[in-house]
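Lab notebook page, bench 4
Experiment: in silico fold of construct C2
Operator: M.H.
Input chain length: 146 residues
Purpose: comparison with the prior construct
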Amino acid sequence: MPTDLTLRIAVPQDAAAVTGLFLAAREAAYPAMPRSIHPPHEVRGWIGEVLGERPRTIPMPDARETWVAEDGAGSAGDKELVGYLVLDPEWLHSLYVRPDLIGGGIGATLLDLAKSLRPEGFGLWVFETNVRAREFYQRHGLAVVR
């Protein structure tokens, strides 16, 4: 696990880093997850809307929260984005970790945050072919509902 992990609410200035992490994670997960059908500039636009960097053109919950995980042990002490979580009122919309850091506790830390913010519970969906993600959620106490 990173030595100096910080969780904070995402700000509009995080949009480029969140986009890069999302695209890298989706590519690394292939073929367990299909590649994004949207080109990078569309993904960047959507994430910019989620983080309030640009006006919304697509509907989304007003109560959506986006959190980022940063590791402060980067070069020259700079904080580096290593994961993020998008949480809607009743759904865990997204949870991604930088591919080279999977298994180091970042995902578990973000999931624990989601559980603490939504103690009444939440739903999520995972590609059936994404066995690693399904096993991760089950290991952390989430149940399969079909």
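Observations: The first strand starts at residue 5 and ends at 9. Residues 15-29 form the longest helix (15 residues).
Next step: discuss at group meeting.
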